[in-house]
């Protein structure tokens, strides 16, 4: 019999005891499991009476119970229990794709009882259908056998209960009878579900887009019909012919968390037709052709054969830096340093003891000058000195006004913290010129070296985009560094930020706080800025808004507070690639100086990029508080697409040429809403590189 064959195959793969035999047993088992989800199997002491073998046996017992509970939850159509089990156990721990003693998998039961929510939850967790149902006939035969055997068992138990006198054995047989009656009804429901099911309809929609010069991306949606069985996989086919003869390739997608697929290894410039079909337990349904019906792998750079802007730049800069080092390595001023290693290797735990050594050169108060402070934080804690002070060192006690050029130079130095010793030696050579700028920058390098030496850490982190100034003439440059490791340092104190803020005794008035007081008051804002500036965009094509404003000594760029390393932006679509055809359309629009598309036009309604741009422009104008009618004077930057790696690209939206950059004293006609800030252009460029 089919059932016996399935059982023999199951026993050959893995011996698993039968699960609970009734719905009441399943409920009791689930209640018992609910308090054991968080059992720590490694929490037993090695010297306790429970040995390793016993612990592993106990663990396997819990895992088997969870597997049995999953089967019973699916049979009872209890979605909440299924989701809870999938949340607390991995597919391997649940034996998600190992058949039970009846040759069934949890997904088989879900789809044959036509429980779509449970089936989808199982599919997203990686559940499969039983591979033993090689045909419709084999599945039908197996279900018929299960129903017949369950009915036979019910009749046998019923006869025994009727004929036997009431006793303990009879009571046990009555329980078995109820359990088998319930299982008989389950198998009948599964058999009826299979017999009434039909093949799925075609996917409701199939969208085709160009992913690169050698790949296409296919996105599809479930069939709309609710009468067919649950779809368990999809098939993507592609061909150069609209008749799909010959067929160039196909792929079966059974991981249904995301309904999309990228076809790789295609020939650039060749048109490919795509279609997708769905599968359920009754077989494959009809295919659905894509929209558009075909696509040609390409990239916007193929329009004029342009090479990537950054190709070879990193290698060229490394080579240039190597040449500069070679020129300076024989300088006289370097002779005393030859015996010193170029990169000092400090023992972090030992060097951090300097924080608490009475002779350290960290400052407690500021006395009219230029200073450097380093903020190291972990979660809600901050690193402080032995006197509960944020580490501060002096740069120059005669420097009363920080020139923006010096500050921006320091931010560039922060990209090469491990080269400070070498930079100091190079600047020393040039001090004979007595340049005030060189003198100041040399003192900056000395202060950095002092901070690195006292902390025993080379990387001081990222420079905050503006120094803190007070009315006493103090200027405080702040660096920020997040410590993500769980390493503990000997004698080092991590103080909660709130405690540091409340315990510090201010020596200034609230009306005129010192730079240190201002730092403590605003430290959470600075840490939030530092964390947000390292966030990355999700893959896709974005529309960015470029707005500048100029001052006497700098140009600043408008950015969102939540993502200050990126221009103001909205997402156009998830596919970052601009195809050659799309770029040709953008070039034509730019060549005739057409306005930005804000209203639909009949002859362009079939252009997907045109429709996507309309939606994105409206959303962006709302974001930056610009009336939509004024966007008609805006322009799309048509010289290039800004690529940030392979997964993120930008199209730029520019105001009219006279309004791209607001001059000092000029009224800004476009006032953005709250949630934005302006960064110095050089700071923004460095943040984007990071």
TrEMBL record:
Annotated region (Disordered), positions in chain: 1-25
GO-annotated cellular components: spindle
What InterPro entries does the entry give? ANKFN1, Ankyrin_rpt-contain_sf, FN3_dom, FN3_sf, Ig-like_fold
Q: Which domain of life is it from?
A: Eukaryota
- GO terms of biological process kind: establishment of mitotic spindle orientation; regulation of establishment of bipolar cell polarity
- Domain named Fibronectin type-III is located at 202-299
The record's listing under SUPFAM superfamilies reads: Ankyrin repeat, Fibronectin type III
How is this protein named in the record? ANKF1 protein
* Source organism of this protein record: Poecile atricapillus
